[in-house]
Amino acid sequence: MAYVLQVDFKMNGPFGEEMAEAFSDIARSINEEEGFIWKIWTESPETNEAGGIYTFETKETAETYLVMHTNRLADFGITNVNAKILAINSKLTELNKGPV
């Protein structure tokens, strides 16, 4: 069963193209994480928020990634991280064209 990891946090930028340029190395490194399937990057310059929605092969790989990611964010001075790990209902997700 696959799992979704939803993460968001306050951030003062960069956003948009600047964010894409600034975080491209981190984005590439995420592809190498154990159990990683895909990620959607999220941002809201209006509310100074960023984050992402990830899928992982197992709950354990999502939990392991969350610990590493929370520590990495703390290195950037971001300490108030909201996160949830939820199981994916594959049958219903496929009906709605979800990439699972």
UniProtKB/TrEMBL annotation:
It holds the Pfam family ydhR. It comes from the Bacteria. Keywords: Monooxygenase, Oxidoreductase. One of its GO terms (molecular function) is monooxygenase activity. Signal peptide: none annotated. The keyword Oxidoreductase applies. NCBIfam families: PRK11118.1. This is Monooxygenase. It comes from Peribacillus muralis. The lineage of its organism: Bacteria, Bacillati, Bacillota, Bacilli, Bacillales.
